[in-house]
Structure prediction request, 154 residues.
Amino acid sequence: MTTTLYFDLPAALRLAEHAAAATEHSTSFTETEAGVACPGALLWVADAGIYLMSGGIPGLRVDPTDDASGHVLVYADGWTEEDDFHDRHDSELGGDDFVEHLHLRQRYGTRRDGSGVTLLQAMRVAATSGYRCLVIDVHDATTYSLRLSRTGPR
Prediction:
């Protein structure tokens, strides 16, 4: 079985643009252990809800003039902190909290000419081409795939 998470594409792209423009980035555990810098990422987080946030430092704040304000979060449809009808323990997400880095400059697809397209480039094109959602299909506790969709959850 697959758990499918739908994120509003324009809102996710706002986070991605912030992360891409940042001069510093939050590193993943693996990057920290290897001593390598993060090239810029959306952070896919599971704790009180399932959401995306910018990996840029400083973070994207709800109120940019107030360093104490919270970070801008884009929740997966139906997985906000108030949604208690989803039980992560019974889904492919599992019960543990996590943060996964979705690197914006990772290869996402291929153009017709055979050249690579990054996740950020694909999101930009999709947002101007009628796509509505960034979708994460979670196949099991260690495998997921990303896609862009013109339709949202049913």
User: Anything to note?
Assistant: Residues 3-149 form one domain. The chain has one domain: 3-149. The helical segments are 9-21, 29-34, 119-127.
